Amino acid sequence: MADAQDTHRWQSVAHAHVRSRDGGLVAGAPEASTHVCLPASWGVVLWECLQLPRTIEEVAAITGRPPAEVSALMGDLQAAGLVTTSEASIDDPLAFHDALMHVRSRGITDEGFGKATGTPIPPEDVAGLGFSLPTVEGDARLTAVTCADVLTRRRTTREWSTDDVTLAQVSALLWHSARDVDGSGQHFPYPYAGPAMATRIAVAAGRVEGLDPSLYVYEAEHHALVPWPPSKPAPAERLPVGEYISGVAAGDRPGDRHPPLMLIVLADLAAMASSYDGLAYANALKTAGSIQATVSLAATALGLGSTILGLASDVDTRDVFDGRVSRLTPIAEMAIGIPRTGPE
């Protein structure tokens, strides 16, 4: 057990998180034996400290609390299975599901816990921050398309036409697959494991007629796009998805053989954890799968091609985002464009 003279370095276990409940802070983890209440006055600082290996003395210095007080709380956290020493050996290998747990799901939630940070932009702000997408009407409403026809025609697209996608096509794709159907913030074209607004969609528009190459966040309630500038470009040696997204966010137009745009599914894992605790990331993946399936079918109905991308760096993708979406974690990417049908 920890004591005031302990020289070990302590840190939170991989899947631990903190929740705000009834005005206090509660630490938990999927494999912990129990939850532990943290001091309201310095629990946030303590948990931030424990994201890196630190000694009792270091934690005491950062939190401004007596080492004995820190040691006593650390003992409770250790007994519950919420912290461990960085030198501790692993007796049992991680379960496969735990090994797949997203690195970004670890850590502390903030005062917005339980409320999706991706709240819709109020109507009066849309004009100032972004723009409404074209109205979806006529053939774009797909009233003459049958589900059986779409399922028969759907294919994964890996070769792209040199033609640009139009803004009207982007509008129709998002309207059919991702809009807030009735403005309630609860009903979408895809099934989801809530909270409803804990999942958002970003658009990396590289070759879209009528749209500058940039990164946008889709506001489902208003069927609008809001531009988002990059915080920093991804390193060139990273995976192609990160390069594409960071390049588009910086205003670069991709080459003709690249897909005209990518859709990025973003999840607020903290908001997910408010309802699902350790299942937050699993449910985020379920929602992302529903979104991608719905987008793929809508793209097929509109004559577009789509590909679910497996090679992605969440670090590179996340680094591109800034502002209000910075707490949202990229968990899935999808390429959209016009399929290549022959030599060009």
How is the topology of this model organized?
Layout lengths: L9 E3 L4 E5 L2 E5 L7 E3 L4 H7 L6 H8 L3 H14 L2 E3 L10 H4 L7 E2 L14 H7 L1 E2 L14 H7 L11 E2 H12 L20 E7 L2 E2 L4 E6 L4 E5 L11 H10 L11 E7 L1 H8 L3 H22 L3 E5 L4 H7 L8 E9 L7
Parallel strand pairs: 2-6, 8-10
Antiparallel strand pairs: 1-5, 2-3, 3-4, 7-12, 9-11, 9-13, 11-12, 13-15, 14-15
Helix pairs in contact: 2-3, 6-10, 7-10, 8-11, 9-10
Let me know the largest β-sheet: 7 strands, antiparallel
Low-pLDDT segments: 89-100, 102-128, 230-239
Distance between the termini: 69 Å
Bin the helical content.
25-40%
Round the Cα radius of gyration to an integer and report it.
23 Å
Summarize the helix and strand pattern as letters: EEEEHHHEHEHEHEHEEEEHEHHEHE
What gross morphology would you assign? elongated
Taking all residues together, what is the mean pLDDT?
76
The structural domain count equals 2
Instruction: Give the name of the CATH architecture of the largest domain.
Output: 3-Layer(aba) Sandwich
CATH homologous superfamily assignment of the largest domain: NADH Oxidase
The CATH topology annotation of the largest domain reads as NADH Oxidase
Number of helices: 11
- CATH C-level class of the largest domain is Alpha Beta
Q: How would you characterize the overall build of this protein?
A:
The N and C termini lie far apart (69 Å). The strands form 4 sheets. This protein has a 7-stranded antiparallel beta sheet, with helices on both faces. A 4-stranded mixed beta sheet has the order 4-3-2-6, with helices on both faces. It is elongated. It folds into 2 domains: 10-108, Alpha-Beta Complex (Outer Surface Protein A, domain 3), CATH 3.90.930; 123-337, NADH Oxidase, CATH 3.40.109.10. The chain has 344 residues and is an alpha+beta fold. Helices cover 31% and strands 19% of the residues.
